[in-house]
Known about the structure:
Elements lengths: L2 E5 L5 H11 L7 H10 L6 E5 L7 E14 L5 E12 L8 H15 L4 E4 L4 H4 L5 E2 L2 E8 L15 E5 L5 H11 L7 E2 L23 E7 L2 E11 L2 E2 L2 E2 L1 E10 L2 H12 L4 E9 L5 H4 L9 E4 L2 E4 L2 H6 L7 E8 L8 E8 L2 E6 L6 E4 H8 L5 H6 L3 E3 L4 H8 L13
Parallel strand pairs: 4-5, 14-15, 18-21
Antiparallel strand pairs: 1-2, 2-3, 3-4, 3-9, 5-17, 6-17, 7-15, 7-16, 8-10, 10-11, 11-14, 12-13, 18-19, 19-20, 21-22
Amino acid sequence: MATELRDLRDVEWDSWADTLDLAFGGLPLPPEERALRRELTETGRSFGVWDDGARDDGGWVATAGSFSFGLTVPGGAEVPVAGVSMVSVQPTHRRRGLLRSMMRHQLADVRERGEPLAALTASEPAIYGRFGYGPAAQDMQLTVDTVRLPAPELPGVDGVRLRLVDPAAAVADCERVYARLVPARPGMLARRPGWERIPVLDDPGKRDGAGVLQCVLAEVDGEVRGYARFAVKPGRDHAGPSGTVRVRDVEALDPVGYAALWRFLFGIDLTSSVAVSTRPVDDALLHLVPDMRRCGIRLDESLFVRPVEVGAALAARTYRTPVNVVLEVTDPFCPWNEGRWRLSGDAAGASCARTADPAGLALSIRELGSAYLGGFSLSSLAAAGRVRELRPGALAAASVAFGSDVAPWLPHGF
């Protein structure tokens, strides 16, 4: 039977989404979440593989899509990025090259749209390195012992007004805070309308013993300066109450507001710990507590980045120190990136163009993606044999220039 790679049509969304859900365990999404997913799906960027013989009347056997975001890069610029998502292949159709054909089709489409970058989160990271995606940001999860750690304090926190509000009613206030933070950290996403509703989804079937989602706003002189969304999971042991505050997200525009929010979360009655699902690896909380070892830190890769157009991608960000280096890039999956590129730039801007000059560094497109946001240094990649220095001194200079003052971080999946 024939298979066909084809674009998704609006009327096919339900069957396409059902195929995707089967690939990730087959559990149906709650109605509100499914409706929001349909609303956020960009049909023109979604496609899959159809097999005439998959069922009596045919059916989807593979899916893929992407979302249109702006990605903050070092220097604070917002760069168009394809947020790759919804990728699946049914077990009956593995090892037939369907994933490879979808990735090739997608990257060609991203290039045609003029987006210099593609990015994704990966349930199985080893898969996507083959297609040029490199881990570019890490994610920190915390389980904080609030019995042994005092609540964070900073001068001025008593002047912050904290107000419990309905999470859905406060979405606009929280989104304004989020939008002001986006340019300050590489990896953060400027998102289209609708995405702000995802953090307030609160299906009872997904609470895992916790209570309802709550939201607290931090205000100064009537202005919302921060927010935290959380739920409390009750608990009790032989010593008494041992509940956990599960923090979904917490953001603030200044250190005092941030400390005030954490002081509130540490002090919720009948709890002994705070579990935080995602924070940047350089999060200020680590310096607001006297003992990091009581924070139960775990690190994971989060965002994977792939330059789709090397010249445009490298010219879109700035560099911590002046850099003038020729990069010899290998990219067999997207051969238009292969070759030597001269990168010249500093904190004010950069240019990157093809050159015939001798290269100073040699690396694959995957390593370029890992170094792009400043989360992983070229020197550390070289230590692993992933970057080669061809001109003495080129590695140290470029590694410093590619760095970022703040760690890149992806605040949510997609």
